[in-house]
Amino acid sequence: MDKIATKRLSYEHQGRKIYEWEQTLEEIHVFIEVPPGVKAKMLDIKIDAKRLRVGLRGNPPFIDVRAATRVQKSLMLERFQAENPGFDFSGASFNGQVPDPKSFMGGVGYNTPN
Prior knowledge:
The chain has 2 domains: about 10-55, no CATH class; about 65-100, no CATH class. It has 1 helix and 5 strands; from the N terminus they run E-E-E-E-E-H. The protein has one helix spanning about 65-85, and strands at about 10-15, 15-25, 30, 45, 50-55. Strand 4 and strand 5 (about 50-55) form a beta hairpin.
């Protein structure tokens, strides 16, 4: 890589690091941490100009960041609606990163036993 300092970023799925990457304007380096016993031929990896997909052959991919973000948004709006039944959140939107609705501000109150 060129001499510009880069920060390694990571993507996690259900608390487990799936991959890390660092990039410059010219290059991207991807580091995949596979579970014990997984061999290279068992991986299903697709890289194109706009997306990266990582998974195990025969299984759905771990990574579709845009789909994961859409799911997070949907779950967060569902949580807001359940916690505030008198309000309509159907037209609400989020700016930036959406928090995990299961742990945001103490977790989901309606899923914990009394």
